[in-house]
Design brief:
Structural class: mainly beta
Strand content: over 45%
Distance between the termini: 77 Å
Largest sheet: 4 strands, antiparallel
Radius of gyration: 27 Å
Number of domains: 2
Helix content: under 10%
Number of helices: 2
Strand order of the largest sheet: 1-23-22-21
Order of helices and strands: HHEEEEEEEEEEEEEEEEEEEEEEE
Number of strands: 23
Length: 356
């Protein structure tokens, strides 16, 4: 009988211990969401995109950083902007054409007909016409020849690219997905350009950077980036810097980030910040990035379908550590970084990066 009493008491003790343990587990799994406000925001931001949606060059060993690290030894201070600040054009490549090029767009109203762009080139050896499928056209001249592009302004269709030598012979042709290619950088016969996919893209074409040998047409590298849209690129010290954004539907949020691609090591990394006051249905955007020996600067404007908008400036170290973000007063159609000062066209303030 005594043995049965001991076993019964032991059984009761075990049930009490299990009950306490289960209660603690329940409390951990049902933490009050309001308690998250006590946590540093950078510690609870989710990963931007899982690895399945990131597309990189096959030969690249990529290091991807998803953590926001804040540097406290700097802060961003607004000061009155000086007058007559000049801003360089986005397209850095601008060679003078030794030939005259005319661009003609041809439109048909019926959906069965195709829109074409004709380039008429007047050279010393005669006149030649080249027709490419598209709605609008542009061209650029380089030491190796003439770069012709036809494209769709909405960014949903494919762009056609043709390269001619100055004898007006076709050297090569290519199709570029995602809208308008923009010339970004030229050096020693290599042209770096990027596409401009539409903000709302049913074909899910990623923003892409191309490096191509103009004489041969060989694609030296082809980098598909995360996000939806590139407003501009910067090439600095052998690295490509870009800014973009990505709506995350299941979170109903949008993230903005800066990416860096090292042309020599082929290392690719990025850093993110969460956009404020907008959801994941983004209708308008403009992003600018600039860089120097010490800082990477991102200025962006986003607007969503219900009228929400976010207009901010974020500063990073060159190691992609976040220094901080702050509101700005003008859409960054043009922005530049000089030493430790940031200028934004139309903003009455300039922004200095100063030590604490």
């Amino acid at each position: 009988m005594r043995r049965l009493k001991v076993l019964f008491l032991f059984f009761i003790f075990v049930l009490i211990v299990l009950g306490i343990f289960a209660s603690e587990v329940f409390d951990v799994n049902n933490t009050n969401p309001m308690d998250l406000n006590k946590t540093n925001t950078s510690e609870i931001l989710p990963s931007l995109i899982d690895n399945k949606t990131n597309v990189y060059p096959s030969e690249t060993n990529n290091t991807v950083s998803n953590e926001i690290k804040t540097k406290t030894e700097y802060r961003i201070v607004a000061v009155p902007a000086p007058e007559n600040i000049t801003f360089e054009e986005e397209e850095r490549v601008n060679f003078t054409c030794p030939v005259r090029v005319e661009v003609f767009e041809w439109f048909w109203e019926t959906h069965t007909s195709l829109n074409n762009v004709t380039f008429t080139i007047h050279a010393d050896n005669g006149v030649a016409n080249f027709t490419l499928m598209g709605v609008d056209g542009k061209y650029g001249c380089f030491p190796e020849g003439i770069f012709l592009i036809s494209y769709y302004p909405d960014g949903l269709g494919r762009s056609r690219v043709m390269f001619l030598d100055y004898n007006l012979s076709v050297r090569w042709e290519k199709i570029v997905g995602g809208g308008i290619p923009f010339f970004e950088y030229y050096e020693d016969g290599v042209l770096i350009f990027s596409n401009r996919p539409a903000n709302v893209d049913p074909y899910d074409i990623p923003p892409t950077i191309y490096g191509v040998n103009l004489s041969s047409g060989e694609v030296i590298f082809h980098l598909e980036l995360m996000g939806k849209s590139i407003s501009n690129l910067k090439i600095f010290n052998g690295k490509i810097y870009y800014a973009s954004y990505c709506p995350v539907n299941f979170e109903q949020k949008t993230y903005v980030y800066v990416g860096v691609y090292d042309l020599k090591s082929k290392e690719y990394k990025f850093e993110q910040v969460q956009a404020e006051n907008v959801d994941h249905y983004i209708l308008g955007s403009d992003l600018k990035v600039d860089v120097n020996e010490k800082f990477i600067v991102l200025a962006y404007y986003l607007s969503d379908w219900v009228g929400g908008s976010d207009l901010r400036l974020c500063v990073f170290t060159t190691d992609l550590d976040l220094i901080g973000c702050r509101k700005i007063s003008a859409t960054p159609w043009h922005m530049k970084l000089e030493n430790n000062t940031i200028y934004i066209e139309g903003d009455p303030n300039a922004y200095k990066i100063v030590r604490e």
